[in-house]
Amino acid sequence: MPVAWSDIAGWREDDHLQAYKAFRTSCRPISAQRQAPADPKALGISLRDPCRAARALDISDDAKAKGFFEAHFLPLRISRLGEGEGFVTGYYEPVIDGSRTQTDVYTVPVYRRPSNLFVRGFKQSAGSLPNKGEVFRKIGRRKLVPYYDRAAIEDGAIAGRGLEICWLKNQTDLLFTQIQGSARVRLEDGSTLRINYDAHNGYPYTPVGRILIDRGIIPKDQMSMQKIREWMEENPDGANELRRQNRSYVFFREVQLSDKDEAVGAQGVPLTPGRSIAVDKALHVYGTPFFIEGELPIESERSKTPFRRLMVAQDTGSAIVGPARADIYLGAGAEAGRVSGRFRHTVRFVILVPKSLDPVARGHKMPLPDPRPSEKIAKLFPQVDPLKEQQKDRKNGTKPPEASAAAGAKDTVKIPEGAKNAAPAATPPAAAVGQTSTTQAAAAKAVPLPEARPNVTPSREMRRHRHYRRYRYGGP
């Protein structure tokens, strides 16, 4: 639904310059695209115009950044069908301890993508594979079977194949790294190893927090990633069982990023803390700006801090599904993890659509439907719903008109005398008999039978006769 800029709560007060910088970052791959989408009306190609304008401008003033968005975009309020609000969660980049080699302390491997993992429709060498799609394990040249699930991999299904990138202290660290999609691993020599999502094993993601809520272990209003971690540390046996309820498993790749660089999202650009969001890639296009307004527990678990901010879609996730659904990136480290773990809140979404896709202007070009018939014509041809008429007849205890007509026809139609010698009618199959209504049966009895054809064996001359075929198939 179109809205005015003045009707968006917090639009004037936001730091538009920060959003503008994040948008320009997304414009790099958009401007570099050589081939346009198959549909020239798609949102992806329409972002080229504002991206060209942004790349040509060197804006360093907040007012000018605000003017840029207002000049090139139109705001539309979006939500799920029948709902007025959307939903947000948060994510971050964990900073965890690890080792390049297996030791007594570091025993949990972080695996890279196996060579026998196959995602239908994608080449193995084509960078990171999508987090949605059919995934198989190749056996030989042609046979494909489902890939190993989390339990099988944790039990060593792919161990000893040289797939280990590094080693972590426990499975909980690995689980949270897989949920977030990236991590900074602090090695024993003081250096940092950066890992990013590369592929998955094909099973749908099952939120372990949801399982704890359903089991009544953690109340819904107290759920957070910190609560999950605390429970797992206090219940190691239960943690193993809970973790394996999520059969999904993520494989990583090592990326060459320094400690100063932010994690790279699915669009292939560095994320901006507090300005980058993950969205449903099936519905939205990377680089699209969204304004999110609501109240989030940023200061503490119980706080309601106003959150009114322009964000840019630069990432995705398997749990991010729907038009008004986003995962807010909050940066790296423990504090970002604590804050993001508290986000499970309803908010309002406004999507910024390029002016080339103005829905009002495009609506003027849409063909109009056929005109409605005049009142006089409508009376001559009344529209009757047969189902409603039948329900009305049953309610009043009357027979449908066609049944009455068929019943009356049985008494008025005379059957010719020749019909006594007629061949018996073919008996319908049992299934057809069971499906025949009373009305159909009555109508069938009222139809006169044809006279019996004389039982004549054609002579040799008749068979040779040029009219034989007409005689054989019902001719004179």
| DSSP, total strands | 16
What does the overall shape look like? globular
The CATH topology of the domain at 5-206 and 246-361 turns out to be Barwin-like endoglucanases
* Class inferred from helices and paired strands: alpha+beta
The average pLDDT value, as a whole number, equals: 82
Which range does the strand content fall in? 15-25%
Through-space gap between termini? 72 Å
The tally of helices reads: 18
Percent of residues in helices: 25-40%
Q: Order of strands side by side in the largest beta sheet? A: 2-15-12-14-13-16
**CATH architecture field of the domain at 5-206 and 246-361:** Beta Barrel
CA radius of gyration is 35 Å
Provide the low-confidence segments as ranges.
403-437
CATH homologous superfamily identity of the domain at 5-206 and 246-361: RlpA-like domain
The main β sheet shows up as: 6 strands, mixed, barrel
Q: What is the top-level CATH class of the domain at 5-206 and 246-361?
A: Mainly Beta
